[in-house]
Amino acid sequence: MRRAINNAQHILLYLLLAFGGFLTAWPFLWMMGTAFKSYVEAVEPTLNPFPKQWHWENVAAVFNAAPFGRYFFNSILVSGTVTCCVILTSVMAGYAFARLRFRGRNVLFALVLATMMVPFELTVVPNFTLIQRLGWYNHYAALIVPWCANAFSIFLMRQAFLALPNDYFDAATVDGCGHLRFLIRIATPLVKPVMVTVALFAFLGSYNALLWPLLVTADESMRVVQVGLTYFRGDFGVRVNLMMCASAIVILPAVLLYFVAQRYFVEAALSAGIKG
Amino acid sequence: MPRTDKMKNALDGIVNLMDGLLQWLDDRLEARRARTRREGLLAVLLLAPAMTLMGVFGFAPLLAGFYMSLFGGPLGENQFAGWGNYIRAFNDPEFWNSLKVTVYYVLGTIPASLVGSFLVAYGLHRILRGRGLLRTLYFLPYVTSAVAAAMVWRALFMTPDGVANLVLELLGLESQRWILEGKGILHLISGGWIPQDIGPSLALGCVMLFDIWHGSGFMIVVFLAGLTAIPRELEEAARIDGAGALRVVRHVVLPLLSPTILFLAVVSTIKAFQAFNSFYALTQQPDQPLFEPTTNVVLYIYGQLYRWNDYGYGAAISMLFMVAIILVTTLQWRFVGRRVHYS
Lengths: 276, 343
Known about the structure:
The complex is a heterodimer of chains A (about 280) and B (about 350).
Chain A: H1 2-35, H2 39-43, H3 57-65, H4 68-99, H5 105-114, H6 120-134, H7 140-144, H8 151-163, H9 166-174, H10 179-190, H11 192-207, H12 211-216, H13 225-230, H14 240-262, H15 267-274
Helix pairs in contact in A: 1-14, 3-14, 4-8, 4-11, 8-11, 8-15, 11-14, 11-15
Chain B: H1 3-31, H2 35-68, E1 71-72, E2 79-80, H3 84-90, H4 93-126, H5 131-143, H6 146-156, H7 163-170, H8 185-189, H9 202-228, H10 232-240, H11 245-273, H12 277-283, H13 297-307, H14 311-335
Antiparallel strand pairs in B: 1-2
Helix pairs in contact in B: 3-14, 4-9, 4-11, 4-13, 5-9, 6-12, 9-11, 9-12, 10-11, 11-14, 13-14
Protein backbone atom coordinates (compact mmCIF):
# COMPACT_ATOMS: atom_id res chain seq x y z
CA MET A 1 0.00 0.00 0.00
CA ARG A 2 2.65 2.48 1.13
CA ARG A 3 4.87 1.32 -1.67
CA ALA A 4 2.17 2.10 -4.26
CA ILE A 5 1.75 5.65 -3.01
CA ASN A 6 5.49 6.12 -3.16
CA ASN A 7 5.55 4.96 -6.73
CA ALA A 8 2.78 7.35 -7.71
CA GLN A 9 4.67 10.16 -6.03
CA HIS A 10 7.79 9.13 -7.82
CA ILE A 11 6.13 9.24 -11.22
CA LEU A 12 4.61 12.64 -10.45
CA LEU A 13 8.07 13.89 -9.46
CA TYR A 14 9.53 12.61 -12.73
CA LEU A 15 6.79 14.31 -14.72
CA LEU A 16 7.29 17.62 -12.93
CA LEU A 17 11.06 17.51 -13.34
CA ALA A 18 10.81 16.52 -16.97
CA PHE A 19 8.31 19.31 -17.64
CA GLY A 20 10.60 21.86 -15.96
CA GLY A 21 13.58 20.52 -17.87
CA PHE A 22 11.65 20.75 -21.12
CA LEU A 23 10.69 24.39 -20.44
CA THR A 24 14.29 25.20 -19.49
CA ALA A 25 15.70 23.57 -22.59
CA TRP A 26 13.01 24.90 -24.94
CA PRO A 27 14.82 28.12 -25.91
CA PHE A 28 17.72 25.86 -26.93
CA LEU A 29 15.52 23.68 -29.04
CA TRP A 30 14.08 26.78 -30.64
CA MET A 31 17.56 28.15 -31.31
CA MET A 32 18.82 24.90 -32.83
CA GLY A 33 15.73 24.60 -35.04
CA THR A 34 15.67 28.23 -36.17
CA ALA A 35 19.38 28.00 -36.96
CA PHE A 36 18.56 25.71 -39.87
CA LYS A 37 15.39 27.37 -41.12
CA SER A 38 15.20 29.43 -44.26
CA TYR A 39 14.85 33.14 -43.70
CA VAL A 40 11.17 33.13 -44.73
CA GLU A 41 10.33 30.33 -42.33
CA ALA A 42 12.36 31.85 -39.49
CA VAL A 43 10.38 35.10 -39.40
CA GLU A 44 7.03 33.32 -39.62
CA PRO A 45 5.35 33.32 -36.19
CA THR A 46 5.12 29.70 -35.03
CA LEU A 47 5.62 27.63 -31.90
CA ASN A 48 7.09 24.75 -33.91
CA PRO A 49 10.86 24.90 -33.49
CA PHE A 50 11.63 22.34 -36.21
CA PRO A 51 12.25 23.53 -39.75
CA LYS A 52 10.23 22.05 -42.62
CA GLN A 53 13.46 21.76 -44.52
CA TRP A 54 16.90 21.73 -42.95
CA HIS A 55 19.13 24.41 -44.41
CA TRP A 56 22.60 23.20 -43.49
CA GLU A 57 24.16 25.85 -45.70
CA ASN A 58 23.37 28.40 -42.96
CA VAL A 59 26.55 27.26 -41.22
CA ALA A 60 28.60 28.16 -44.26
CA ALA A 61 26.75 31.47 -44.51
CA VAL A 62 27.75 32.31 -40.93
CA PHE A 63 31.40 31.53 -41.60
CA ASN A 64 31.24 33.64 -44.76
CA ALA A 65 29.60 36.58 -43.04
CA ALA A 66 32.46 36.97 -40.56
CA PRO A 67 35.85 35.28 -40.02
CA PHE A 68 34.53 32.90 -37.39
CA GLY A 69 37.41 30.46 -37.84
CA ARG A 70 39.81 33.13 -36.64
CA TYR A 71 37.48 34.14 -33.80
CA PHE A 72 37.35 30.52 -32.64
CA PHE A 73 41.11 30.18 -32.76
CA ASN A 74 41.48 33.32 -30.62
CA SER A 75 38.79 32.30 -28.15
CA ILE A 76 40.14 28.80 -27.63
CA LEU A 77 43.72 30.04 -27.31
CA VAL A 78 42.78 32.73 -24.81
CA SER A 79 40.35 30.66 -22.74
CA GLY A 80 42.64 27.62 -22.74
CA THR A 81 45.62 29.62 -21.49
CA VAL A 82 43.52 31.42 -18.89
CA THR A 83 42.15 28.11 -17.63
CA CYS A 84 45.61 26.56 -17.21
CA CYS A 85 46.92 29.65 -15.42
CA VAL A 86 43.89 29.85 -13.12
CA ILE A 87 44.36 26.22 -12.08
CA LEU A 88 48.02 26.84 -11.34
CA THR A 89 47.58 30.06 -9.37
CA SER A 90 44.54 28.89 -7.42
CA VAL A 91 46.04 25.50 -6.47
CA MET A 92 49.16 27.24 -5.17
CA ALA A 93 47.35 30.04 -3.34
CA GLY A 94 44.57 27.74 -2.13
CA TYR A 95 47.11 25.38 -0.60
CA ALA A 96 48.94 28.22 1.10
CA PHE A 97 45.73 29.59 2.61
CA ALA A 98 44.53 26.17 3.72
CA ARG A 99 47.66 24.43 4.97
CA LEU A 100 50.41 26.92 5.75
CA ARG A 101 50.64 29.10 8.82
CA PHE A 102 52.05 32.55 8.21
CA ARG A 103 51.52 36.02 9.54
CA GLY A 104 48.66 37.99 8.01
CA ARG A 105 47.02 34.95 6.48
CA ASN A 106 43.47 35.84 7.47
CA VAL A 107 43.79 39.48 6.47
CA LEU A 108 45.18 38.51 3.09
CA PHE A 109 42.41 35.98 2.52
CA ALA A 110 39.77 38.55 3.45
CA LEU A 111 41.32 40.94 0.91
CA VAL A 112 41.16 38.24 -1.75
CA LEU A 113 37.47 37.69 -1.05
CA ALA A 114 36.86 41.44 -1.04
CA THR A 115 37.89 41.66 -4.69
CA MET A 116 34.68 39.80 -5.53
CA MET A 117 32.72 42.86 -4.43
CA VAL A 118 34.43 45.40 -6.66
CA PRO A 119 32.20 46.29 -9.63
CA PHE A 120 34.07 45.11 -12.71
CA GLU A 121 33.15 48.24 -14.68
CA LEU A 122 35.12 50.41 -12.24
CA THR A 123 38.37 48.51 -12.65
CA VAL A 124 38.02 48.51 -16.41
CA VAL A 125 39.17 52.08 -17.01
CA PRO A 126 42.35 51.97 -14.87
CA ASN A 127 43.12 48.49 -16.22
CA PHE A 128 42.64 49.70 -19.77
CA THR A 129 45.06 52.57 -19.14
CA LEU A 130 47.54 50.12 -17.63
CA ILE A 131 47.25 47.79 -20.63
CA GLN A 132 48.03 50.69 -22.96
CA ARG A 133 51.06 51.73 -20.89
CA LEU A 134 52.36 48.15 -20.99
CA GLY A 135 51.94 48.17 -24.76
CA TRP A 136 49.58 45.19 -24.61
CA TYR A 137 46.70 46.86 -26.44
CA ASN A 138 45.50 44.58 -29.25
CA HIS A 139 47.75 41.73 -28.04
CA TYR A 140 46.83 38.36 -26.59
CA ALA A 141 48.49 39.34 -23.31
CA ALA A 142 45.75 41.91 -22.68
CA LEU A 143 43.09 39.22 -23.11
CA ILE A 144 44.87 36.65 -20.96
CA VAL A 145 47.06 38.03 -18.17
CA PRO A 146 44.51 40.05 -16.13
CA TRP A 147 42.29 36.98 -15.79
CA CYS A 148 44.91 34.46 -14.64
CA ALA A 149 43.93 34.60 -10.97
CA ASN A 150 40.56 35.10 -9.32
CA ALA A 151 39.06 34.99 -5.85
CA PHE A 152 36.35 32.41 -6.52
CA SER A 153 38.82 29.78 -7.76
CA ILE A 154 41.21 30.41 -4.88
CA PHE A 155 38.29 30.11 -2.47
CA LEU A 156 37.15 26.77 -3.96
CA MET A 157 40.68 25.32 -3.92
CA ARG A 158 41.28 26.46 -0.34
CA GLN A 159 38.09 24.77 0.81
CA ALA A 160 39.07 21.59 -1.02
CA PHE A 161 42.49 21.48 0.67
CA LEU A 162 40.92 22.27 4.04
CA ALA A 163 38.62 19.28 3.65
CA LEU A 164 41.55 16.85 3.33
CA PRO A 165 42.09 14.92 6.58
CA ASN A 166 45.12 16.10 8.56
CA ASP A 167 46.23 12.48 8.95
CA TYR A 168 47.29 12.39 5.30
CA PHE A 169 49.75 15.16 5.84
CA ASP A 170 51.01 13.80 9.16
CA ALA A 171 51.60 10.39 7.62
CA ALA A 172 53.44 11.94 4.69
CA THR A 173 55.60 14.04 7.00
CA VAL A 174 56.63 10.96 8.96
CA ASP A 175 57.80 9.48 5.66
CA GLY A 176 59.96 12.56 5.14
CA CYS A 177 57.68 14.36 2.72
CA GLY A 178 57.71 18.15 2.75
CA HIS A 179 54.94 20.55 1.82
CA LEU A 180 55.82 20.88 -1.84
CA ARG A 181 56.03 17.16 -2.46
CA PHE A 182 52.86 16.60 -0.46
CA LEU A 183 51.06 19.21 -2.52
CA ILE A 184 52.10 17.86 -5.91
CA ARG A 185 52.19 14.11 -5.31
CA ILE A 186 49.39 13.59 -2.79
CA ALA A 187 47.06 16.56 -2.31
CA THR A 188 46.62 17.61 -5.94
CA PRO A 189 45.40 14.21 -7.18
CA LEU A 190 42.96 14.07 -4.27
CA VAL A 191 41.30 17.36 -5.16
CA LYS A 192 41.08 16.64 -8.89
CA PRO A 193 37.26 16.93 -9.01
CA VAL A 194 37.44 20.43 -7.56
CA MET A 195 40.21 21.31 -10.02
CA VAL A 196 37.97 20.23 -12.88
CA THR A 197 35.19 22.38 -11.45
CA VAL A 198 37.53 25.37 -11.18
CA ALA A 199 38.73 24.74 -14.73
CA LEU A 200 35.18 24.59 -16.09
CA PHE A 201 34.16 27.85 -14.44
CA ALA A 202 37.40 29.55 -15.48
CA PHE A 203 36.91 28.47 -19.08
CA LEU A 204 33.25 29.52 -19.17
CA GLY A 205 34.08 32.89 -17.60
CA SER A 206 36.80 33.60 -20.13
CA TYR A 207 35.02 32.17 -23.17
CA ASN A 208 31.76 34.03 -22.44
CA ALA A 209 33.32 37.42 -21.64
CA LEU A 210 32.30 40.31 -23.87
CA LEU A 211 33.11 43.78 -22.56
CA TRP A 212 36.83 43.39 -21.88
CA PRO A 213 37.74 41.71 -25.21
CA LEU A 214 35.69 44.37 -26.97
CA LEU A 215 37.68 47.16 -25.32
CA VAL A 216 41.25 45.87 -25.57
CA THR A 217 41.24 44.62 -29.15
CA ALA A 218 40.94 46.63 -32.34
CA ASP A 219 41.83 44.36 -35.28
CA GLU A 220 39.50 41.80 -36.78
CA SER A 221 42.24 39.22 -36.33
CA MET A 222 42.24 39.71 -32.55
CA ARG A 223 38.49 39.46 -31.97
CA VAL A 224 36.96 36.59 -29.99
CA VAL A 225 33.70 34.76 -30.76
CA GLN A 226 31.46 36.70 -28.36
CA VAL A 227 32.45 39.95 -30.04
CA GLY A 228 31.91 38.34 -33.44
CA LEU A 229 28.45 37.31 -32.35
CA THR A 230 27.41 40.91 -31.75
CA TYR A 231 27.85 41.58 -35.48
CA PHE A 232 24.76 39.47 -36.04
CA ARG A 233 22.71 41.33 -33.49
CA GLY A 234 21.49 44.20 -35.60
CA ASP A 235 17.78 44.83 -35.91
CA PHE A 236 15.12 42.26 -35.26
CA GLY A 237 14.35 39.83 -37.99
CA VAL A 238 17.13 40.99 -40.26
CA ARG A 239 18.86 37.60 -40.37
CA VAL A 240 17.23 35.80 -37.52
CA ASN A 241 18.14 32.34 -38.82
CA LEU A 242 21.83 33.21 -39.27
CA MET A 243 21.80 34.90 -35.87
CA MET A 244 20.55 31.69 -34.24
CA CYS A 245 23.00 29.61 -36.26
CA ALA A 246 25.89 31.78 -35.09
CA SER A 247 24.68 31.50 -31.47
CA ALA A 248 24.47 27.73 -31.76
CA ILE A 249 27.99 27.53 -33.18
CA VAL A 250 29.40 29.79 -30.46
CA ILE A 251 27.73 27.83 -27.66
CA LEU A 252 28.96 24.49 -28.99
CA PRO A 253 32.50 24.37 -27.48
CA ALA A 254 31.20 25.31 -24.02
CA VAL A 255 28.53 22.61 -24.15
CA LEU A 256 31.07 20.03 -25.36
CA LEU A 257 33.43 20.95 -22.56
CA TYR A 258 30.63 20.57 -20.05
CA PHE A 259 29.93 17.05 -21.29
CA VAL A 260 33.60 16.13 -21.04
CA ALA A 261 33.93 17.63 -17.56
CA GLN A 262 30.63 16.24 -16.34
CA ARG A 263 32.22 12.91 -15.43
CA TYR A 264 34.31 14.70 -12.81
CA PHE A 265 31.89 17.47 -12.21
CA VAL A 266 29.82 15.26 -9.96
CA GLU A 267 28.04 16.47 -6.90
CA ALA A 268 30.93 15.49 -4.65
CA ALA A 269 33.20 18.01 -6.34
CA LEU A 270 31.49 21.06 -4.93
CA SER A 271 30.37 19.63 -1.63
CA ALA A 272 33.78 20.11 -0.06
CA GLY A 273 33.89 23.64 -1.33
CA ILE A 274 31.20 25.22 0.77
CA LYS A 275 31.50 23.91 4.28
CA GLY A 276 32.87 26.15 7.02
CA MET B 1 58.41 -3.37 -27.01
CA PRO B 2 55.46 -1.16 -27.91
CA ARG B 3 56.05 2.54 -28.07
CA THR B 4 53.65 3.24 -25.21
CA ASP B 5 55.96 1.41 -22.79
CA LYS B 6 58.89 3.52 -23.88
CA MET B 7 56.84 6.64 -23.35
CA LYS B 8 55.77 5.40 -19.97
CA ASN B 9 59.39 4.87 -18.98
CA ALA B 10 60.32 8.31 -20.19
CA LEU B 11 57.44 9.82 -18.26
CA ASP B 12 58.44 7.92 -15.15
CA GLY B 13 61.95 9.28 -15.55
CA ILE B 14 60.65 12.82 -15.74
CA VAL B 15 58.42 12.27 -12.72
CA ASN B 16 61.35 10.89 -10.72
CA LEU B 17 63.49 13.83 -11.74
CA MET B 18 60.76 16.23 -10.63
CA ASP B 19 60.43 14.33 -7.42
CA GLY B 20 64.15 14.63 -6.73
CA LEU B 21 63.98 18.34 -7.45
CA LEU B 22 61.06 18.75 -5.08
CA GLN B 23 62.87 16.74 -2.41
CA TRP B 24 65.86 19.02 -2.80
CA LEU B 25 63.69 22.14 -2.57
CA ASP B 26 61.91 20.75 0.47
CA ASP B 27 65.27 19.98 2.10
CA ARG B 28 66.48 23.50 1.37
CA LEU B 29 63.41 24.88 3.07
CA GLU B 30 63.86 22.41 5.92
CA ALA B 31 67.32 23.80 6.50
CA ARG B 32 65.75 26.90 7.97
CA ARG B 33 65.38 26.21 11.63
CA ALA B 34 62.10 27.78 12.75
CA ARG B 35 59.10 25.93 11.38
CA THR B 36 56.86 28.99 11.00
CA ARG B 37 59.57 30.87 9.17
CA ARG B 38 59.98 28.02 6.73
CA GLU B 39 56.25 27.97 6.07
CA GLY B 40 56.31 31.72 5.65
CA LEU B 41 58.90 31.46 2.89
CA LEU B 42 56.97 28.71 1.16
CA ALA B 43 53.76 30.71 1.51
CA VAL B 44 55.38 33.67 -0.20
CA LEU B 45 56.47 31.40 -3.06
CA LEU B 46 53.04 29.85 -3.48
CA LEU B 47 51.08 33.06 -3.13
CA ALA B 48 53.31 35.27 -5.28
CA PRO B 49 51.71 34.64 -8.70
CA ALA B 50 48.10 34.96 -7.58
CA MET B 51 48.71 37.93 -5.31
CA THR B 52 50.78 39.81 -7.88
CA LEU B 53 48.07 39.42 -10.51
CA MET B 54 45.25 40.34 -8.16
CA GLY B 55 47.22 43.24 -6.76
CA VAL B 56 48.00 44.71 -10.16
CA PHE B 57 44.65 44.08 -11.86
CA GLY B 58 42.34 44.04 -8.83
CA PHE B 59 43.53 46.37 -6.10
CA ALA B 60 45.63 48.93 -7.93
CA PRO B 61 42.67 49.87 -10.18
CA LEU B 62 40.56 50.23 -7.07
CA LEU B 63 42.94 52.86 -5.68
CA ALA B 64 43.17 54.46 -9.11
CA GLY B 65 39.37 54.50 -9.24
CA PHE B 66 39.17 56.26 -5.90
CA TYR B 67 41.71 58.82 -7.09
CA MET B 68 39.70 59.31 -10.29
CA SER B 69 36.53 59.89 -8.29
CA LEU B 70 38.01 63.00 -6.72
CA PHE B 71 38.35 64.82 -10.03
CA GLY B 72 35.73 66.40 -12.24
CA GLY B 73 35.47 66.54 -16.02
CA PRO B 74 36.75 64.12 -18.64
CA LEU B 75 40.03 62.28 -18.18
CA GLY B 76 43.00 64.56 -18.73
CA GLU B 77 41.21 67.73 -17.65
CA ASN B 78 41.99 67.04 -14.05
CA GLN B 79 40.00 69.53 -12.06
CA PHE B 80 40.11 68.61 -8.42
CA ALA B 81 36.55 68.19 -7.20
CA GLY B 82 37.02 66.75 -3.72
CA TRP B 83 33.82 65.10 -2.61
CA GLY B 84 31.89 66.97 -5.33
CA ASN B 85 31.15 63.87 -7.40
CA TYR B 86 29.83 62.07 -4.34
CA ILE B 87 27.52 64.94 -3.41
CA ARG B 88 26.35 65.10 -7.02
CA ALA B 89 25.36 61.44 -6.87
CA PHE B 90 23.08 62.03 -3.89
CA ASN B 91 21.21 64.73 -5.80
CA ASP B 92 21.02 62.83 -9.08
CA PRO B 93 17.52 61.42 -9.73
CA GLU B 94 18.84 59.19 -12.53
CA PHE B 95 21.28 57.58 -10.12
CA TRP B 96 18.49 56.95 -7.60
CA ASN B 97 16.38 55.50 -10.37
CA SER B 98 19.18 53.11 -11.38
CA LEU B 99 19.49 52.09 -7.74
CA LYS B 100 15.75 51.38 -7.65
CA VAL B 101 16.05 49.21 -10.76
CA THR B 102 18.94 47.30 -9.17
CA VAL B 103 17.02 46.69 -5.93
CA TYR B 104 13.90 45.49 -7.79
CA TYR B 105 16.09 43.19 -9.81
CA VAL B 106 17.92 41.70 -6.81
CA LEU B 107 14.70 41.19 -4.85
CA GLY B 108 12.95 39.77 -7.89
CA THR B 109 15.60 37.25 -8.89
CA ILE B 110 17.48 35.99 -5.80
CA PRO B 111 14.64 34.61 -3.61
CA ALA B 112 12.79 33.18 -6.61
CA SER B 113 15.82 31.42 -8.05
CA LEU B 114 16.99 30.16 -4.64
CA VAL B 115 13.60 28.59 -3.90
CA GLY B 116 13.11 27.29 -7.44
CA SER B 117 16.61 25.83 -7.65
CA PHE B 118 16.26 24.16 -4.29
CA LEU B 119 12.98 22.51 -5.32
CA VAL B 120 14.46 21.24 -8.57
CA ALA B 121 17.65 20.07 -6.87
CA TYR B 122 15.73 18.27 -4.14
CA GLY B 123 13.55 16.63 -6.78
CA LEU B 124 16.64 15.53 -8.72
CA HIS B 125 18.17 14.29 -5.48
CA ARG B 126 15.14 12.11 -4.75
CA ILE B 127 14.86 10.35 -8.12
CA LEU B 128 16.98 7.34 -8.85
CA ARG B 129 17.42 7.16 -12.59
CA GLY B 130 17.92 9.77 -15.29
CA ARG B 131 19.37 12.35 -12.93
CA GLY B 132 22.36 13.05 -15.15
CA LEU B 133 20.25 13.82 -18.21
CA LEU B 134 17.79 16.05 -16.34
CA ARG B 135 20.62 17.87 -14.56
CA THR B 136 22.19 18.56 -17.93
CA LEU B 137 18.91 20.05 -19.23
CA TYR B 138 18.77 22.41 -16.25
CA PHE B 139 22.47 23.29 -16.46
CA LEU B 140 22.49 24.04 -20.21
CA PRO B 141 21.44 27.71 -19.89
CA TYR B 142 24.32 28.42 -17.51
CA VAL B 143 26.86 27.12 -20.02
CA THR B 144 25.51 29.47 -22.67
CA SER B 145 27.02 32.92 -23.01
CA ALA B 146 24.66 35.73 -22.01
CA VAL B 147 25.14 37.29 -25.44
CA ALA B 148 24.05 34.20 -27.35
CA ALA B 149 21.20 33.40 -24.97
CA ALA B 150 19.99 37.00 -25.02
CA MET B 151 19.79 36.87 -28.82
CA VAL B 152 17.49 33.89 -28.55
CA TRP B 153 15.31 35.60 -25.96
CA ARG B 154 15.17 38.82 -27.94
CA ALA B 155 13.75 36.81 -30.80
CA LEU B 156 11.26 35.09 -28.46
CA PHE B 157 10.14 38.49 -27.12
CA MET B 158 9.92 39.98 -30.60
CA THR B 159 7.13 42.49 -31.18
CA PRO B 160 4.49 42.10 -32.51
CA ASP B 161 4.64 38.40 -33.36
CA GLY B 162 7.37 36.67 -31.41
CA VAL B 163 6.82 33.42 -29.54
CA ALA B 164 5.90 35.17 -26.26
CA ASN B 165 3.05 37.06 -27.93
CA LEU B 166 1.97 33.90 -29.72
CA VAL B 167 1.54 32.22 -26.34
CA LEU B 168 -0.49 35.18 -25.07
CA GLU B 169 -2.64 34.97 -28.20
CA LEU B 170 -3.31 31.27 -27.58
CA LEU B 171 -4.40 32.18 -24.03
CA GLY B 172 -6.66 34.87 -25.43
CA LEU B 173 -4.68 37.76 -23.98
CA GLU B 174 -3.56 41.06 -25.46
CA SER B 175 -0.09 41.11 -26.97
CA GLN B 176 2.66 43.00 -25.13
CA ARG B 177 5.80 44.95 -26.02
CA TRP B 178 7.93 42.90 -23.55
CA ILE B 179 11.57 44.07 -23.53
CA LEU B 180 10.53 47.41 -25.04
CA GLU B 181 7.84 48.08 -22.43
CA GLY B 182 8.84 50.68 -19.85
CA LYS B 183 5.51 50.67 -18.03
CA GLY B 184 5.18 48.86 -14.72
CA ILE B 185 4.05 45.24 -14.58
CA LEU B 186 1.49 46.13 -11.90
CA HIS B 187 0.14 48.91 -14.12
CA LEU B 188 -0.38 46.50 -16.99
CA ILE B 189 -1.96 43.77 -14.85
CA SER B 190 -4.29 46.13 -13.03
CA GLY B 191 -5.53 47.53 -16.31
CA GLY B 192 -4.05 50.97 -15.67
CA TRP B 193 -5.41 51.33 -12.15
CA ILE B 194 -1.94 51.37 -10.53
CA PRO B 195 0.33 54.21 -11.76
CA GLN B 196 2.88 53.05 -14.31
CA ASP B 197 6.02 54.01 -12.42
CA ILE B 198 5.24 51.84 -9.39
CA GLY B 199 7.06 48.53 -9.23
CA PRO B 200 9.38 47.08 -11.87
CA SER B 201 8.69 47.63 -15.57
CA LEU B 202 7.73 44.78 -17.85
CA ALA B 203 11.11 45.12 -19.60
CA LEU B 204 12.85 44.67 -16.24
CA GLY B 205 10.58 41.69 -15.56
CA CYS B 206 11.82 40.12 -18.80
CA VAL B 207 15.44 40.59 -17.70
CA MET B 208 14.62 38.99 -14.34
CA LEU B 209 12.94 36.03 -15.99
CA PHE B 210 15.91 35.66 -18.31
CA ASP B 211 18.42 35.68 -15.46
CA ILE B 212 16.43 33.26 -13.31
CA TRP B 213 16.49 30.96 -16.32
CA HIS B 214 20.16 31.64 -17.06
CA GLY B 215 21.54 31.44 -13.51
CA SER B 216 19.54 28.66 -11.89
CA GLY B 217 21.67 25.88 -13.35
CA PHE B 218 24.61 26.95 -11.20
CA MET B 219 22.47 27.02 -8.05
CA ILE B 220 20.95 23.62 -8.79
CA VAL B 221 24.37 22.02 -9.18
CA VAL B 222 25.64 23.58 -5.95
CA PHE B 223 22.47 22.55 -4.09
CA LEU B 224 22.86 19.00 -5.41
CA ALA B 225 26.42 19.03 -4.10
CA GLY B 226 25.19 20.07 -0.65
CA LEU B 227 22.38 17.51 -0.68
CA THR B 228 24.76 14.70 -1.57
CA ALA B 229 26.83 15.53 1.49
CA ILE B 230 23.84 14.92 3.80
CA PRO B 231 23.89 11.34 5.06
CA ARG B 232 20.87 9.46 3.71
CA GLU B 233 20.36 7.77 7.09
CA LEU B 234 19.35 11.07 8.70
CA GLU B 235 16.51 11.61 6.25
CA GLU B 236 15.43 8.00 6.47
CA ALA B 237 15.50 8.00 10.27
CA ALA B 238 13.21 11.03 10.33
CA ARG B 239 10.86 9.40 7.86
CA ILE B 240 10.71 6.16 9.86
CA ASP B 241 9.83 8.25 12.91
CA GLY B 242 6.76 9.30 10.97
CA ALA B 243 7.80 12.75 9.74
CA GLY B 244 6.08 13.80 6.51
CA ALA B 245 8.03 14.95 3.46
CA LEU B 246 7.55 18.63 4.31
CA ARG B 247 8.74 18.17 7.88
CA VAL B 248 11.79 16.23 6.75
CA VAL B 249 12.71 19.10 4.47
CA ARG B 250 12.00 21.74 7.10
CA HIS B 251 13.71 20.10 10.08
CA VAL B 252 16.41 17.88 8.59
CA VAL B 253 17.36 18.90 5.06
CA LEU B 254 17.23 22.71 5.30
CA PRO B 255 19.24 23.02 8.54
CA LEU B 256 21.93 20.68 7.21
CA LEU B 257 21.96 22.57 3.93
CA SER B 258 22.24 26.00 5.56
CA PRO B 259 25.97 26.54 4.80
CA THR B 260 25.19 25.93 1.11
CA ILE B 261 22.21 28.28 1.24
CA LEU B 262 24.27 31.03 2.83
CA PHE B 263 27.08 30.59 0.32
CA LEU B 264 24.67 30.74 -2.63
CA ALA B 265 22.73 33.68 -1.21
CA VAL B 266 25.87 35.75 -0.70
CA VAL B 267 27.60 34.90 -3.97
CA SER B 268 24.50 35.28 -6.12
CA THR B 269 23.47 38.54 -4.45
CA ILE B 270 26.87 40.04 -5.27
CA LYS B 271 26.51 38.79 -8.83
CA ALA B 272 22.97 40.17 -9.11
CA PHE B 273 24.07 43.61 -7.94
CA GLN B 274 26.73 43.59 -10.64
CA ALA B 275 24.57 42.16 -13.45
CA PHE B 276 25.50 43.78 -16.73
CA ASN B 277 25.58 41.39 -19.69
CA SER B 278 21.92 40.35 -19.54
CA PHE B 279 20.67 43.92 -19.13
CA TYR B 280 22.86 45.14 -21.94
CA ALA B 281 22.38 42.33 -24.43
CA LEU B 282 18.64 41.98 -23.85
CA THR B 283 17.33 45.52 -23.61
CA GLN B 284 19.89 48.10 -24.72
CA GLN B 285 20.77 49.17 -28.24
CA PRO B 286 24.45 49.88 -28.93
CA ASP B 287 23.95 53.22 -30.68
CA GLN B 288 21.04 54.61 -28.70
CA PRO B 289 20.67 56.34 -25.34
CA LEU B 290 20.29 54.02 -22.37
CA PHE B 291 16.76 52.66 -21.93
CA GLU B 292 15.95 53.99 -18.48
CA PRO B 293 13.52 51.32 -17.20
CA THR B 294 16.31 48.74 -17.42
CA THR B 295 19.29 50.93 -16.53
CA ASN B 296 20.72 49.47 -13.33
CA VAL B 297 23.59 51.02 -11.42
CA VAL B 298 26.28 49.15 -13.31
CA LEU B 299 24.79 50.22 -16.66
CA TYR B 300 24.59 53.79 -15.37
CA ILE B 301 28.27 53.60 -14.41
CA TYR B 302 28.99 52.17 -17.85
CA GLY B 303 27.10 55.08 -19.39
CA GLN B 304 29.05 57.66 -17.39
CA LEU B 305 32.38 56.06 -18.24
CA TYR B 306 31.96 55.04 -21.87
CA ARG B 307 29.11 57.04 -23.31
CA TRP B 308 29.57 60.44 -21.67
CA ASN B 309 33.24 60.09 -20.66
CA ASP B 310 32.47 61.47 -17.22
CA TYR B 311 35.14 59.37 -15.55
CA GLY B 312 35.24 61.08 -12.18
CA TYR B 313 31.50 60.80 -11.67
CA GLY B 314 31.37 57.19 -12.89
CA ALA B 315 34.17 56.27 -10.51
CA ALA B 316 32.44 58.02 -7.59
CA ILE B 317 29.22 56.07 -8.19
CA SER B 318 31.25 52.86 -8.40
CA MET B 319 32.80 53.61 -5.03
CA LEU B 320 29.43 54.29 -3.40
CA PHE B 321 27.99 51.18 -5.02
CA MET B 322 30.86 49.01 -3.84
CA VAL B 323 30.39 50.22 -0.26
CA ALA B 324 26.68 49.36 -0.57
CA ILE B 325 27.49 45.82 -1.80
CA ILE B 326 29.96 45.28 1.04
CA LEU B 327 27.32 46.48 3.53
CA VAL B 328 24.63 44.17 2.17
CA THR B 329 27.01 41.21 2.11
CA THR B 330 28.12 41.85 5.68
CA LEU B 331 24.51 42.08 6.83
CA GLN B 332 23.76 38.78 5.09
CA TRP B 333 26.66 37.05 6.83
CA ARG B 334 25.57 38.51 10.16
CA PHE B 335 21.86 37.77 10.05
CA VAL B 336 21.65 34.71 7.85
CA GLY B 337 24.99 33.38 9.03
CA ARG B 338 23.78 33.31 12.61
CA ARG B 339 21.22 30.68 11.70
CA VAL B 340 23.67 28.46 9.88
CA HIS B 341 24.54 25.07 11.35
CA TYR B 342 27.96 23.69 10.67
CA SER B 343 28.15 19.98 11.28
